[in-house]
Amino acid sequence: MLRLEKRPSPSRAWTIATPVVAVILTMVAGGIMFAMLGKDPVEAIRTIFWDPLFNAQFAAYSRPQLLVKAGPLILIALGLSLGFRAGIWNIGAEGQYIMGAIFGAAAGLAVYPVESRLIFPVMIIAGGLGGFLWAMIPAILKTHFRTNEILVSLLLVYVAQNILSSMALGALRNPEGGGFPGSRNLSQIPAMANTELVAGTGMHWGVVVAFVAVIAAYILLQRHILGFQIKLAGQAPRAARFAGVSPNRLVILCMGISGALAGLAGFFEVSGPAGQISIDFATGYGFTAIIVAFLGRLNPLGILLAGLLMALTYIGGELAQFMLGLPSAAIQAFQGMLLFFLLAVDLLSNYRIRLARKEIA
Amino acid sequence: MTIADRPELLSVQGITKAYPGVVANSDVSFTIREGEVHALLGENGAGKSTLVKMIFGLVKPDAGQMRLRGADYAPQKPGQARAAGVAMVFQHFSLFEALNVAENVALGMENPPPMRELAARIRAVSEEYGLPLDPGRMVGDLSAGERQRVEIIRCLLQDPKLLIMDEPTSVLTPQEVEILFKTLRQLSAEGTAILYISHKLEEIRNLCDAATILRRGKVVGTADPKATTARELAELMVGTTLTPPERRRADRGEVVLGVSDLTLASPIPFGTELKNVSFTVAKGEILGIAGVAGNGQDELLLALSGELRAPADRVRINGQPVGDLGPEARRRAGLVAAPEERLGHAAVPDMSLVENALLSGAVRKGLTQRGFIDWAGAEAFAAQIVKDFDVRTPGTHVAARALSGGNLQKFVVGRELSQDPSVIVINQPTWGVDAAAAAAIRQAILDRAAAGAAVVVISQDLDELLEISDNFAALNEGRLSRPRPVEGLTIDQIGLMMGGAHGMEVAHHGA
């Protein structure tokens, strides 16, 4: 019989190895699922993981998409990871992402058609502020009324989605759009466009900010007392209070940072790849980022890699739908398997499996 | 008929049990006769608990046999042990606070009788053995001593042949201990054997007929406790000669810590509210605060460390009001604190000793600069604690939970004492620590006081408090008695300060 035994200290080797093992198990289980759907599993896995980067036919289109998709995932996941480490569960990044896009876009469109180099930076700030303020609602309700931030932040996503529709149809609708829903196309207004910085790479300002945020988060967690306090609060709340950490301050801080980063991601998306505020602007980055945060073990460098991997499964998944006719539900199930296996294998960093000896009665 | 002539009840032969990395019991043998009160004596970690868990069927031995009344005895689970007539009162109670006494007792039974009948039986047993208990009362409202009675009565209802008691007196006042001992002697006279686990030597000398002494999992001796001095027993238990701590009396200086009329609600569910607590501690003074567990000790520590805030003028350090300040600001003002619970409160289990050194040392040791952590400084601080306080660890980068309780306690106390504090507050400084480490910790506290610190030691170990304190007070239901000089205090006076026998005025009137 198998038995789990707690390790005296967490295994470093397994902490690094578990994501790799989880990816391999996902490939195996996913391959079986694809085979049951009547597809060649090897081809399906290759289409998802290999073709987007190296297939001569698709790579020119899909390689830049890697950074375009990974940028917002990494940025949002970084913010979430700080809260998750402290035991503060912001599940509503999607809503903060939407509000960041609306605030940022609205700040620019309010002064249209003025042309100034200052407009884009102001829009960035407005985008971050939008996400920050939206995250403050669950944060303040939690610190003052002890509500559950998981529920409040999640439900506010649906509120944000309705505000998005209302904006696309009302206040922010393009007056020259012939009555179609959706705002002016920001990516075509020079003062507001989040352009591709190096042609053919997909690198835009949002990706730059995401990379800078990875470094900043790394320094925060490794070298700054605030990062230490975040870890303390998550691992031992009573010890954190003993050390002098104020739980309320930490809630505001973590919700604020994650909201602001999600808002920034929303703004960079709306001013670049998406181009405009539209009813179908929100595509679930805020939820997928939760998976990215855990896949990256709540570690900034891990999140960077996990964001790229998750982006790859998105692009590869689309490719597989298109090339092999796999249903989109199968691709979502495949992504779900990744999180499932990660959490399951995660056990091994704190426990080891032993064969139970026969006990002498 | 003397004990030695009575028939054997339980014999344990060559019991061995190993856990990964540690042998808890190695070839342990002893015998208990019917009606005998048998002490199992040893330091923390000597293997007493593992041994009785095997007798009670919670743990299976790797080797060895047990015989109960001549028959092979190998309980697979506690239910089988109970059916064979073995009952156990644990050190930590397993009671539901939101249920009443009778409901709690019923939960532990396989086929509980109707509630009314059970309540009558509880009443009958409690009267018979002088343990007054109202079956209808909510357990959350009971004192620790009363909760223990629920556990004892739960056992007595099964009419056991062998009653195992694990450190039963750690939650009792001296008066309650006396009442418990009367009950145990009555049981023994009726033929029930008692296996009594303790490291309190005077109790064992007072109560027990025989003692088996364990050290590092092995039987190192047997003794007749009534014919052996406490010192001899202690030296058998520890394996070395003990030296009592040495004290140099400092001149009593001005008042450093002042608490006046402090009243605070407890943040802990079923916790104890602090009521009008007032005391002062002068430079060089050690104030010992006694009390049965759960009478406001945890709350008092939180209120002093700054984890629980009060109006500013209720707590003063060097005359400055600090009552409304948090832990960091109080550390800056010179106060350090060591909570009772090591893992999860004083230290983070999964963090390294370096990180745990930073936890409370950041402010006073200057381990951060503009918010950035000086890891080299933290590492040096951790290494210094490990060296100065003889913390046995492979290094400063191991997780706190990998250390034994005693070593982690030395680290936690050392961390606080090494910060050059002017006020020290410690709850249970030597709880779960072996005798040698406990002596080292007490000596370190005395040295700090001699160097001019004002010290508050909260403890449930009366011997410890009487040994190191200058003044003595007791917490009882959140109220602190007036501090009195230790010299000239009698154990009876102390017992009354601790609240006497909680609700036991009628006990043993007929006995």
From TrEMBL, chain A:
The chain crosses the membrane at residues 12-37, 66-84, 96-112, 118-141, 150-172, 202-221, 250-268, 274-296, 303-323, 329-348. GO terms for molecular function: transmembrane transporter activity. GO terms for cellular component: plasma membrane. The keyword Chloroplast does not apply. The keyword Cell membrane applies. It holds the Pfam family BPD_transp_2. Keywords: Cell membrane, Membrane, Transmembrane, Transmembrane helix. PANTHER family: ABC TRANSPORTER, PERMEASE PROTEIN (PTHR47089), GUANOSINE ABC TRANSPORTER PERMEASE PROTEIN NUPP (PTHR47089:SF1). This is ABC transporter permease. It comes from Aliigemmobacter aestuarii.
UniProtKB/TrEMBL annotation, chain B:
It is a peripheral membrane protein. It is found in: Cell membrane. Signal peptide: none annotated. The keyword Repeat applies. The keyword Repeat applies. InterPro entries: AAA+_ATPase, ABC_carbohydrate_import_ATPase, ABC_transporter-like_ATP-bd, ABC_transporter-like_CS, P-loop_NTPase. Keywords: ATP-binding, Cell membrane, Membrane, Nucleotide-binding, Repeat, Sugar transport, Translocase, Transport. Residues 10-241, 257-502 form the ABC transporter domain. One of its GO terms (cellular component) is plasma membrane. One of its GO terms (molecular function) is ATP hydrolysis activity. This is ABC transporter ATP-binding protein. The lineage of its organism: Bacteria, Pseudomonadati, Pseudomonadota, Alphaproteobacteria, Rhodobacterales.
